[in-house]
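Q: Hi! First time doing this. I have a protein sequence and I read that you can turn it into a structure. Is that right? Here it is:
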Amino acid sequence: MKIPRSHPRYESLVRREQLVRAWKEGIVAPEGLIAHGRGEAWDYLFGEGTSAPALVAERAAAAYLVSARRPVISVNGNVAALGGRDVVQLAKAIPARIEVNLFHRSEDRVKRIVRLLERFGAKDVLGLRPNARIPGLASRRALSHREGIFSADVVLVPLEDGDRAEALARMKKTVISIDLNPLSRTSQRSTIPVVDELSRALKNIEKFVKELRSDPKEVARLRRGYARADNLRAVYSFLQWRLDRLRRGVPARSRPGRKRASLRKT
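A: Yes, that's right. Below is the predicted 3D structure, encoded as structure tokens:
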């Protein structure tokens, strides 16, 4: 389907087409299409833009990733379909390992996702031969690699299941999530919940990684200054501001000027 760039929902419709194509190619599970629709509804509420609190969380996430000893990025079908290229670029910038981890796991799906990531330039993608288990999980998401997620100190888990985010937190790992629903168990249990759309979040984190990797003092400051509870409260306040403007019939989109001011307060 050819989507005209003038369509006001252009980017959203392109993402839908990417997911449907990936489902036909055996990369995305049918359940992933439902999950995407749920996230898209939250993106409407946030104005389909990155809020100032999300930028603060993304910068903190970058600080933790560049200072990690063993950073790993976890990838599922939706992440591969919507942000595979961005994941590979971010992994190279950190640098970090990539591991494929699926709830609806089949060896064929893992192979297809690994091949897709390799086409984007990834090397040594983990996931095909797991040799460890994350304790406390009954699903196949417990399958892991000792040289990957199992031994990581910082794990980026985009579009994650809440039970695994919670299990990774119990293992004392720094868990960075990307989830548009600030009320989800993933957002509530992760160390740094990034409440933003996947592609925007990955690009922002990569940009901040490149800025921070040569500035250890700023990295240390961001790690000390980030307060998870305060950041989530700011997300709720932003959402309340949006809904209030919508209630009053005022167009409510996030303002670029507000982003920069908030970053200075990190």
